[in-house]
Write a structure and sequence with these properties.
Elements lengths: L1 H20 L3 H5 L16 E3 L1 E4 L2 E10 L5 E4 L5 E6 L6 E2 L4 E6 L2 H32 L4 H26 L8 E5 L4 E6 L6 E2 L6 E5 L2 E9 H4 L7 E6 L9 E8 L9 E9 L9 E7 L3 E6 L4 E3 L2 E7 L8 E5 L1 E6 L2 E6 L6 E3 L3 H9 L1
Antiparallel strand pairs: 1-23, 2-17, 3-12, 3-16, 4-11, 5-7, 5-10, 6-9, 7-8, 9-11, 12-15, 13-14, 13-16, 14-15, 17-22, 18-19, 19-20, 21-22
Helix pairs in contact: 3-4
Keywords: Coiled coil, Signal
Protein name: Efflux RND transporter periplasmic adaptor subunit
Family: Belongs to the membrane fusion protein (MFP) (TC 8.A.1) family.
Length: 363
């Protein structure tokens, strides 16, 4: 009986000692403010740093515009009246399409002058031949033959000039001419109606070429320092078209000075035609850098002592400890921060509980 009673007592003593050894340190000391470390049970979300190419430098507002060479003015070679107008403003036209039929009185007068100039040239040619022959025979002085030859050249020049004027705009014998589209595009301006007058110094039609557009950008001063011609851009269309794929383009010019009013730098990018690309439309433009960087969630970055830091899991710490590490931010876009220096691909960073880790580090 004695032997059977001793065994349970020994077991109870061992269990009591084991329970005392496994008690949490905070409970033994009575300290209820344990530091927020991995051992305290913080649920810290993590993210793996990854390498990215064509780093987004940021976004800037822009306005779609037409290139300077995209607009072509259609003018009449002579002043006259619009007998018929074939197009309306906003209409798409192809190269060579008729825009208007114009009648002018000046071409009729020029045709009469051309007929007289041709007759005078014929007479000058006959006289020059006759005097040249007489000069060769010694009947007259050679100077008189030279004068006749010069008059012939002058008459021929007048005929050539008048012939060129007659051929302008395909003017017919009755003074009518058809104005045609020199390029394909959209009629941005129609400034004449049937029966209205047309001035040779004004443009009754303006055509905007299709297929090429540009974007005027307002770059923040800090971003403008990194933007260079040749960098790629992506244009996101505003107004509920977020599902559409972004339109690509490229920076073609960056202004050398800052606008003193809005403290921004003007830049211009070229883009191609795409659904939704319309001159005058406001868009958001993302500028893509030409280098690479390390991307982490933007929430992982915090400011400590006026510098950007992230908390990186210690690879040598089996308990999952964290160390703060200073980093240099290259760009922020789309909820991510791109790191230029301070991180390597594959590093595990904290993506939540940053304030707790920051407070624990401060203590």
């Amino acid at each position: 009986m004695t032997t059977h009673l001793i065994v349970p007592v020994a077991v109870m003593a061992a269990l009591s000692a084991l329970s005392a050894c496994s008690s949490p340190p905070a409970e033994q000391s009575g300290d209820a403010t344990a530091k927020p470390t991995a051992a305290s049970g913080l649920a810290i979300e993590t993210a793996v740093a990854r390498e990215v190419e064509n780093v987004p430098l940021g976004s800037a507002p822009g306005t779609i515009v037409l290139p300077p060479e995209a607009r072509v003015a259609v003018t009449a070679p002579f002043s006259g009246a619009a007998v018929r107008v074939y197009v309306i403003e906003g209409q798409q036209v192809s190269r060579g399409d008729a825009l208007a039929l114009v009648r002018a009185s000046e071409p009729v007068q020029i045709r009469g002058e051309l007929a007289r100039a041709q007759s005078a040239a014929n007479l000058a040619e006959a006289r020059a031949k006759r005097l040249s022959q007489l000069a060769e025979e010694g009947v007259i002085a050679l100077a008189r033959a030279d004068e006749a030859a010069a008059e012939l050249e002058q008459a021929r020049a007048s005929v050539a000039e008048l012939s060129r004027l007659v051929s302008l705009g395909g003017v017919g014998p009755d003074g009518t001419m058809t104005l045609r589209a020199p390029i394909a595009g959209r009629l941005a301006h129609v400034g004449v109606e049937t029966g209205g007058g047309i001035d040779a110094l004004a443009a009754p039609f303006v055509i905007e070429a299709a297929g090429a557009y540009q974007v005027e950008l307002q770059l923040p001063e800090q971003m403008a320092r990194k933007v260079r011609p040749g960098m790629a851009v992506e244009i996101a269309l505003a107004g509920g078209e977020s599902e559409a794929a972004p339109v690509g383009g490229r920076i073609i010019a960056v202004a050398p000075s800052i606008d003193p009013v809005n403290r921004s730098v003007m830049a211009r990018a070229s883009i191609g035609a795409a659904p939704g690309i319309i001159a005058g439309r406001n868009v958001s433009v993302t500028i893509l850098g030409q280098g690479s960087g390390i991307a982490v969630p933007d929430a992982s970055v915090t400011r400590i002592d006026a510098k950007d830091h992230v908390f990186v899991r210690k690879a040598s710490d089996k308990q999952g400890g964290w160390e703060k590490r200073a980093v240099e931010i290259l760009a922020r876009s789309g909820g991510e921060a791109v790191i230029a220096e301070g991180l390597a691909a594959g590093d595990v960073v904290a993506a939540s509980s940053i304030a707790e880790l920051k407070a624990a580090n401060a203590e």
